[in-house]
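Continuing the series of single-chain predictions for the mutant panel. This is the parent chain; the variants come on the following pages.
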Amino acid sequence: MEKKFDLITLGEIMLRLSPPSNERLARSDAFEKHAGGSEVNVACGAAMLGLRAGVVSKLPENQLGTYIKNKIRFSGVSDDFLVYDSDKNSRVGIYYYESASHPRKPAVVYDRLNSAFSNLKLEEIPEEIYSSTKVFHTSGITLGLTEDTKRIAIEMIKRFKEHGTLISIDVNFRANLWTEPEARICMEEILPYVDIFFASEETCYKMFQKTGTLEEMMKSFCDEFGVKVVATTERKIISPRKHVFGSKIYSAKEDKYYSQPPYENIEVVDRIGSGDAYVGGMLFGMIYYDDFQKAVEFGNAMSAVKNTIPGDMPASDFKEISAVIEGHEIKIKGGETREMAR
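Parent structure:
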């Protein structure tokens, strides 16, 4: 049966307010406004590459809600499943982000309590959604936000699963939302439903208390819970403005790991959303090509390029990312040729 969507995500869409030009939060008189959120960033990245993507969220029925809706539409993401709150007190969650240069570290202040999304009701989501997509994606941010959003996310996972939908989860741990033991208990509850799992190496050994090599930890999720695919990003921070980024994917069906040499010396303009860009690119490679090597390539390239773009959401289409991948492959082959000539 043909599905209307390739990917549907569930999550809060927030506003980010940031001082311009690396200014301090405490003294800036102006803020730049960006829309974003982990799951909507994933949907936007996948849609920009060519997938049919939609997002489930709840927004206030005011000008800020309209601003966010327009941003989503501009990225090619369907707003069919956006819910609007007409209550005059309804609000968008906000976070204030101060970027930095070495040795100063970035700073974040959250103002998201009682946002419209935290008041989303399961009955506000249409029943037909559960049979309409190939993949459903959410993250630990939604699961950890409130008890209500956790309950809704878990119930949606179960309903999507009943319709044969692939379930994708990004752990995306946030210490300001819940503790590592709380997150582990929740993740272990839903992992038997999960097909595609995104977890960092740090998450594997700290939250899940796993041991062994990265490859052994990745494979263990498949052995213990029946997960089909595990993806782990590998970021090395040289300075706030200079990063190295790569990733690894394990497929249980092939019992095989997929990777490529990382992108080095990425000139970071804005790292927010770069992990989400990776997820969007990786899911695109999986869904569109049904190829894990392509998933690695598109995920890595999307993340590398997002680091160079202001704002939370990816802003790169298939043509641009394909050219970046081609250029990276040429660089890799050039390096291999020089190494062989030594």
